[in-house]
Each structure stands twice: as C-alpha cells, then as structure tokens.
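4.2 Preliminary Data

To establish feasibility before requesting continued support, the project team ran the inverse folding procedure on a target of 300 residues. The structure was first converted into the token representation described in Section 3, and no sequence information of any kind was made available to the design step. The complete token record follows.
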C-alpha cells in the first residue's frame, strides 16, 4: 500500500484494508479533494457487504473478471461500456467477481457534490444520489473516471492537486447529469417513486417541455396525490419536480442554441418559457451567462 490517508478520512484506509488484493492509494496524503484507490485482486472479489463510507464512491472495472451486482433481487453485471459502479454515501453494496480483477475507486465528499449541485442551481444533495446507476452505459462518465484514475496513478508525471480538483469537478458534473437523466436507470429509494412511475414521469416532462406542466398532471400519471407525488419524486431524484423541469428545459434550450440559428423567442416557446425575457433570465441564473453569449461561445 502506498500513501497513508490523513486522519480526517480514515474510511479510505478502511476501504484499502478490506481489499483482498494489492491496493494503491493516491491523493489522501496530498489532501486531494477526491482521493483514489487502485485494487489488483488476483483471486477475485467475494460476495460480501462493502464498508459503508461517509462519502460517495465511484468504481470502475479496468480489466479482468465480470463484476456482479448483488444489491438487488435481479443480479446485474458489468459489460462492454458498463463497468461503472456507484456507492452512494451510507449505502451498503455487495459485489462479486469470480476471477482476477483490477479496478479503481474515487472518493467524492459531500462538499464536492454540493459545490457542483449549487453551481447547477440544484438543491444540496448531501450524498443522496440515486442508487440505480451502477453498470449504466454512460460513455463520457466512463472516460472521465478512467482518465482520473490514469492521472492519479501516473508516477512518471505526478498530478498536481489543482489538476485533480479540476478533473474531479468535471467528473462530478457528469455524475449529476446522470443522476438527473430520466433514462439512466431506475430510482428505488425508500419512499420514492417506483421504477415505472419515475420513468413515466421523466419521459412525460421531456416530451411536454413546451407545455405548462403542473404538479397535478404529473401526480395523475402515478395515481398519487400532488403532495405525496412531490415528496416521492424528490426522494427518488434528489430535487423537487419544478427544479427538474427547469433543468430539462435549460438542457433542451442549450441543444437549440448549439445546433442552429433559431431565434431566442422561438427557443423560449419551444422549451416552455413564458417569453424571451423569462427564458433569458432563467438561463442566465442557471448557466451563468445569457443564451446569446452561450451561443456565441459555442460557435467559436
């Protein structure tokens, strides 16, 4: 084992000690915001409950045996483009690998997730990410995690804390996008919407962005009262329905701005904003720049 994690994050050392193979640690002694572990398990991984940590842990299978997720009734497995795992803060996970395997882990503290969420005008997450994101086919997040681990363990050109913080922020930004995606997986938090209810709700929102969607419309899809629905949706997604709707409208507007020369007034109506003024004000608040500036920056 390399590097001794600092006393403020002893759970990282606990993770390292729980591995049956060789483990390398990077970033704990250097006090990176997102330390990393590299595991090389010559005998595979036994099915057992992994150490619960006070941080969110991203895992990535690098090579070797297929990983099986035994956290649900239906066992899910890794595969081409589906080697990413996520252990939300405080959650128990059980994985099995029936042969030699090498995998990496990145530890994401609540402060990092909340910092990224606030930048996207999302409510504070406090580690409450969806628990259904393991093995989803998300190419960009797979690449970002792989690059993070590669740089973390590059002994030829050691990474600086500044570089790794920038990489961690980019990684978390994409993780939040996956967390908000209606097609990434199915949420199953206690007291939340069922997988079918969540899928129907998110698809309805995306398909009706131009309309004036109200809470009663969404609740009717699930057979719940508006109050119960709002609470269940937030439990599943980590943010209330209206903020999810705004986020989807902004993402749709970005696509319009990048892909063509549609006027701001037309984009506003197509994405469900009251008018161009409302669109511009909301876009600036969420993105940080007005839509016209965003379009010009992307055209350079």
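Position-by-position output of the design step:
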């Amino acid at each position: 084992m390399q590097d001794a994690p600092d006393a403020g994050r002893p759970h990282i050392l606990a993770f390292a000690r729980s591995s049956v193979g060789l483990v390398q640690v990077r970033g704990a002694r250097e006090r990176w915001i997102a330390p990393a572990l590299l595991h090389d398990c010559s005998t595979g991984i036994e099915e057992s409950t992994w150490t619960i940590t006070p941080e969110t842990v991203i895992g990535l299978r690098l090579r070797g045996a297929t990983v099986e997720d035994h956290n649900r009734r239906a066992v899910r497995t890794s595969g081409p483009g589906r080697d990413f795992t996520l252990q939300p803060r405080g959650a128990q996970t059980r994985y099995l690998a029936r042969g030699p395997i090498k995998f990496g882990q990145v530890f994401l503290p609540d402060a990092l997730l909340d910092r990224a969420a606030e930048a996207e005008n999302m409510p504070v997450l406090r580690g409450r990410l969806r628990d259904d994101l393991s093995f989803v086919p998300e190419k960009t997040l797979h690449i970002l995690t792989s690059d993070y681990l590669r740089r973390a363990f590059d002994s030829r050109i050691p990474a600086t804390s500044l570089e790794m913080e920038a990489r961690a922020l980019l990684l978390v930004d994409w993780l939040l996008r996956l967390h908000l995606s209606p097609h990434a997986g199915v949420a199953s938090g206690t007291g939340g919407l069922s997988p079918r209810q969540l899928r129907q709700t998110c698809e309805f929102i995306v398909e009706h962005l131009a309309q004036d969607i109200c809470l009663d419309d969404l609740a009717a899809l699930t057979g719940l009262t508006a109050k119960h629905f709002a609470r269940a949706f937030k439990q599943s997604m980590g943010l209330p329905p209206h903020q999810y709707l705004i986020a989807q409208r902004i993402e749709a507007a970005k696509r319009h701005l990048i892909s063509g020369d549609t006027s701001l007034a037309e984009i506003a109506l197509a994405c469900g904003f009251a008018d161009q003024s409302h669109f511009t004000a909301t876009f600036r608040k969420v993105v940080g720049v007005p839509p016209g500036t965003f379009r010009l920056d992307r055209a350079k």
